[in-house]
Amino acid sequence: MIAHSAKATRQDGLSSAPVSCDAGATARRASRPLRIAVGIASAGRPSILLETVDYLVGLPVQPQRLIVCVPANDDAAGLADRLDVEVIIGSRGLTSQRNSIIRASAADTDILIFLDDDFIPAATFLARMAAVLAANPDVAIATGEVLADGVLIGGLDMSKALQVLHTAGEGSERVTDVYNAYGCNMAVRLAPVLEHALAFDEQLPLYGWLEDVDFSRSIARYGRSVRVEGARGVHLGVRSGRQPGQRLGYSQVANPVYLIRKGTMSKGRAIAQIGRNILANASGIVFNDRLVDRWGRLHGNWLALIDLLASRAAPSRILEFGNPPSRAPSPPIATKRR
User: Fold this and answer.
1) Where in this protein does the record put region Disordered (predicted)?
2) How many structural domains is the chain composed of?
3) Does residue 257 sit in helix, strand or coil?
4) Phi, psi (deg, nearest 5) at residue 17
5) Is the pLDDT of residue 25 over 80?
6) Domain stops at, among 235, 255, 282
7) Separation between Cα atoms, residue 294 and residue 326, nearest integer Å
8) Does residue 99 sit in the same domain as residue 173?
9) pLDDT tens for residues 285-328?
10) How many CB atoms lie within 10 A of CB 232?
């Protein structure tokens, strides 16, 4: 089901058109073992990306392909001449880069596992994901068990991640239905993606806040969205290269509203999400949260609310403004190899 393989590095100029899949191709896919690819979109974090790729290629179980998409060669420093990873160049933005990975993998891949460039899977992660998707053809998208998430605590380093994975050991293989996969690790069955010309929404620019919800609810029309508890990993949540506070704060309001209008997020869930974000930013200021740019995020929340009242709120508006200095600069988070 999963074999050891090495692919030549390539840098392709890929079109933005969705890839279709005919009935014959679907039948051929069903008659052979599942082929697995891992796809990583990254920008501005070459050392983190290199560290993660080095870890992945050292695991005992390997995918047929490991594909990295970056907006520029410098974003993949140290990977260009390697034979164990494919490097492609795509337009900057998480959604656009993930679409480039879909197009690059479409011809010979059944299951595409998207990992963040700072997600560290356990040694059994790929095998367990593959087993669940092979045994449950009705599953369209799956997400694993995140044992620790550095996004919530200001970031983790590789040594801490490995310690968490070692301490946790093996877990159950229980599969439960969920509303959406978590973007740091998503296993996607490509057949419905290709058959229905699904894609990540490139109207969600840059960091693509809530792109995981949007894509999960789009593909959920054609199969189950599940969580696989035994597929474990750690999300480092490295803060370098992430979206600045003001832009993220704007997205925290504008993106849920956009998804309501699109029909991929329920009104109740979106309103609750917006409320939690605003409350977290406001309370973070009150309690002097120095791990996150709460002032910048709250300012972005406020700009989005003003735009909503003026009927001009849109996810792409974050491209029109930069990010002012935060009032409470966050302390640096030490990470390995940085």
Assistant:
1) 1-20
2) 2
3) helix
4) -75, 140
5) no
6) 235
7) 8
8) yes
9) 999 888 889 999 999 999 999 999 999 999 999 999 764 544 44
10) 24
